[in-house]
């Protein structure tokens, strides 16, 4: 995740989409506020006091970041809702709200959002630092102490890995049968596929994720990335055979390079490749604190559903999945195809 939260919309949203971290942050920070309609809320006056800034500063951030703050819970009470709030909090000190026609409310999530934006407040800075510490701890704890193989906690990982393994074998067989090349062809063309799918070769990928020499790259890849690679490998294997049959001889490396260049521009593959790039760049930055610079333009905030996928109740370690009868049944069906 981006550590300078004041300047990173993606970094802020990754934290605010992580409900597991938000629960721990609210418990640890004890910021106060008013409990209303099953959530903790703050008035503008309370927020200003909490962050040790004046109300005009709060209003300025509201004006400059209205869409983001509204997306993350800020709301304005009027009419019946305001009347109800006044009645419910009449015995709580939230400032004089008896005569106002409307009232802005900041749920806890929005207060965190504001604290990650405000640069004039030492209190906000302290909250940001605490938030980052808690988020890092929660992700590590939920991922079993490390994030190298957090991709394997997705229930789609094993079926995708199995299918990709088969298509990988199909592609390496095609290199043997249909290409005039030396023994270095496997590594060379694996890198060419990686560079098409996610713009990095194997060495670059390992360096970014700080993988060891013995670590298997594809064991760290998300299911969407494996699916994109498998699609590319399968398509190339089919086209190599077709061209081999047409020519009546093995392909030269130049002819295979041309096929790869053509496949890279295939409009049917483009959505899968773009999705794989976005998933890799965004999740690695969020979960592994790893920046793929060549994919920086693809980085998005990680949606709430991904936190559930990799950290929630449905996520499991690879060992747990391999002992799950349902997963084994899926793999058996794939094997029997």
Notes on the structure:
Helices cover 61% and strands 5% of the residues. By secondary structure, the chain is mainly alpha-helical. It has 2 domains: 5-142, no CATH class; 150-336, no CATH class. A 4-stranded antiparallel β-sheet has the order 1-2-4-3. A hairpin with a 2-residue loop joins strand 1 (34-36) and strand 2. The longest helix has 25 residues, at 223-247. The protein starts with 8 loop residues before the first helix and ends with a helix.
Task: Write a compact overview of the structure shown.
By secondary structure, the protein is mostly helical. It has helices at 9-16, 19-29, 44-51, 55-64, 66-71, 79-88, 108-115, 122-142, 157-178, 185-198, 202-209, 223-247, 253-264, 270-287, 304-311, 318-322, 325-336, and strands at residues 34-36, 39-43, 75-78, 102-107. Helix content is 61%, strand content 5%.
């Amino acid at each position: 995740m981006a550590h300078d939260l004041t300047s990173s919309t993606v970094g802020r949203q990754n934290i605010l989409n992580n409900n597991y971290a938000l629960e721990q942050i609210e418990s640890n920070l004890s910021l106060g506020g008013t409990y209303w309609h099953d959530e903790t809320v703050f008035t503008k006056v309370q927020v200003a006091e909490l962050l040790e800034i004046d109300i005009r500063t709060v209003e300025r951030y509201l004006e400059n970041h209205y869409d983001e703050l509204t997306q993350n819970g800020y709301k304005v009470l009027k009419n019946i809702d305001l009347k109800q709030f006044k009645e419910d909090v009449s015995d709580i000190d939230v400032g004089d709200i008896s005569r106002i026609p409307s009232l802005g409310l900041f749920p806890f999530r929005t207060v965190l959002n504001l604290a990650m934006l405000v640069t004039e407040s030492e209190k906000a800075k302290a909250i940001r630092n605490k938030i980052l510490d808690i988020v890092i701890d929660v992700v590590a704890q939920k991922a079993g102490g490390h994030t190298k193989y957090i991709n394997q906690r997705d229930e789609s990982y094993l079926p995708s890995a199995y299918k990709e393994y088969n298509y990988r074998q199909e592609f390496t067989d095609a290199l043997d049968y249909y290409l005039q090349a030396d023994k270095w062809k496997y590594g060379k063309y694996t890198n060419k596929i990686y560079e098409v799918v996610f713009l990095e070769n194997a060495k670059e990928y390992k360096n970014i994720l700080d993988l060891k020499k013995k670590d298997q790259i594809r064991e760290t890849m998300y299911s969407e990335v494996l699916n994109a690679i498998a699609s590319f490998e399968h398509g190339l294997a089919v086209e190599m055979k077709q061209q081999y049959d047409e020519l009546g001889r093995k392909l030269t490396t130049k002819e295979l390079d041309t096929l790869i260049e053509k496949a890279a521009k295939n409009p049917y593959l483009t959505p899968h490749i773009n999705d794989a790039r976005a998933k890799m760049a965004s999740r690695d930055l969020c979960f592994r604190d790893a920046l793929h610079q060549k994919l920086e333009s693809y980085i998005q905030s990680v949606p709430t559903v991904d936190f559930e996928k990799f950290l929630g109740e449905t996520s499991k370690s690879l060992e747990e999945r391999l002992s799950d009868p349902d997963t084994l049944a899926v793999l058996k069906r794939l094997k029997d195809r």
